[in-house]
Amino acid sequence: MSSNVIKFGLLGQLRCVRREEGADISFFNSLDECRLYRTISTGGIMSVLDTGKLGLWTWLDAYSHRQCIETAQAAEQFGYGAIWVPEAFGRDPFVILTLLARETDRLGLATGIANIYARDAMAMVAARNSLNEISGGRLILGLGVSHAEIVTPLRDHVYGKPVSTMRNYLEAMAKANYAGPVPDQQGPVVLAALRQNMLKLSGELTDGAHPYFITPEHTARARELIGPGKFLAPEQKVLRIKDASEARPIARGFMALYLGMQNYRNNLLTLGFTESDFEHGGSDRLVDAIVAWGDDATILKRLEAHWDNGADHVCMQPLRPDGEPGFDDTALRVFAPKP
User: Fold this and answer.
1) What tens digit of pLDDT does each residue of 244-270 get?
2) Strand, coil or helix: what is 317?
3) Going along 116-205, which residue ranges are E strands?
4) Measured between alpha carbons, how far is 65 from 69 in angstroms, rounded to an integer?
5) Which domain holds residue 137?
6) This prediction's pTM
C-alpha cells in the first residue's frame, strides 16, 4: 500500500494528514508522530515556487480590480517573482489574490501580511488551502500580529504579547480541521518579524520571515537569527527622485503611518536610531535608511545590499514620485528582472 503525507499547515511543524489507498484520512495525534511518519513516507507536497530575487510590494486599494489584474500580469511579464499585498483597512487580501491567481500563471501571490487578528486559525488554514488549491501552490502566506494602534481601536481586539500570541496562533493552526479538498501543492508560510524573538520563531516554526520598514543591516541580522535555508524576503521602499530636497518630503509622507507604530519604532531603536530620529517626520538619516531614493544606480545598490546580506527575495515597494497612493509603474519597468 503506497502512502504519502499531505501537509496543510506550516512547513515542518503543522498537523499532517495521512492518506492511504483504500483507507480513510486519519489525523496524527502529535507533531512528533507527524514528523516521524513523514520521514518514512514518500514525502510531502510543498510547492517549488520560484520567487526569483525580486518581487513587487504594493497597496492595490488605489486601483480597480481590472487595474489590479493588469498590474499582476505586468509584474509577471517583467519577471518579478511575486506580488505582495498588505492587509490593513481595505480589500481582503485573499479575495484579491484569488482574483489574480485566475489571471496569472507563474507569479507568486503573497500576503504582506495577513493580520492574525482578522481571522481565527481555522479560517486562516481554510484561506491558505483554498488559495493554494486555486493557484497551484503559489500562495506565500505572510502572517503578522499587526500593531496595537490598529488592532485595539479599529478591530476592537485585545492586543496580546506579539511572540506568545503568534506562537499560540501557529499552534492553533496546527490543530485546525479542514474538510475541503486538500491542495496538490502548498506555498511557504513566513512571519512578519522584526526583533530577535519573532525572527527566531519564524525560523523555528515557519518557512522564513518578511521584515518590513527595515534596512539592509537588519537583513543581515535577520539571516543570522532565522538560520540558513529559511526564506528571507525583506521589503524595501524605492523612490526615483534624485534631489534630496524633493525626495525626502515625499518619503516622509509615506513613512508617517509607520513611525506612529510602536513596533516599528522599537525595532529601529535596536538598529542604532534614537527617539530624536522619529521627530518631525523622521530625521534625514532615518529617511535615507528606510527609503532608497536617488538615481537608478543608487537604488539598485540598495537592493543589492539586501541580497548581499542574506535576502533571498527583496520585496520592492516603488513609491510614486507625486506622493499619491499606489506604485510607480516606471520603476516597475526600470528594475524589471526581464527588461
Assistant:
1) 999 999 999 999 999 999 999 999 999
2) strand
3) 139-144, 189-191
4) 6
5) 52-334
6) 0.87
